[in-house]
Amino acid sequence: MVGPVSEAQKWALVEGALALVSPSPWEAFALVVAEAWSAGIPVLVNAGCAATVEHCRRSGGGLSFAGFGEFEAEVDRLSRDEQLRERLGAHGRAYVDRWFRWPRVIDRYATFVESVVAAA
Of 49-53, 75-79, 104-108, which gets the smallest average pLDDT? Predict the structure, then answer.
């Protein structure tokens, strides 16, 4: 699907997906990756995008591809292996729960602000 969708439609699409593909090599952090992980959905990211590759590495929640051949191989792998999808999705969800839920984000932001104030 291309273009804007409603929140309800977005979540229905994410929750019904086998995996989410983030093909962009130019993401700082793709919110849609975290949203997919929130739903327990694994991700497939462009190997040229250091940020999303690093989040996949840290979380264990996704795979990467460099070029069409690798993309095709990983899509086939994800399509055929339900246990892999479930494992990647569970790891991604645990990563989001640990680092990106509001209480954790607020705590990290407060620590950052306190360190700036202390340094001033």
Answer: 104-108
Secondary structure (H, E, C), the chain:
CCCCCCHHHHHHHHHCCCCEEECCCCCCCCHHHHHHHHCCCCEEEECCCHHHHHHHHHHCCEEEECCHHHHHHHHHHHHHCHHHHHHHHHHHHHHHHHHCCHHHHHHHHHHHHHHHHHHC
What b/e string do you get for 52-68 counting C-beta neighbours within 10 Å, with b at 16 or more?
Answer: bbebbeebebbbbbeee
Sheet holding 62-65, edge to edge: 20-22, 43-46, 62-65
Rounded alpha-carbon distances, angstroms, from residue 99 to 40, 66, 104, 108: 15, 27, 6, 9
pTM of this prediction?
A: 0.85
pLDDT at 60: 98
At 26 the pLDDT is 95
- Size of the chain, expressed as the number of residues it contains: 120
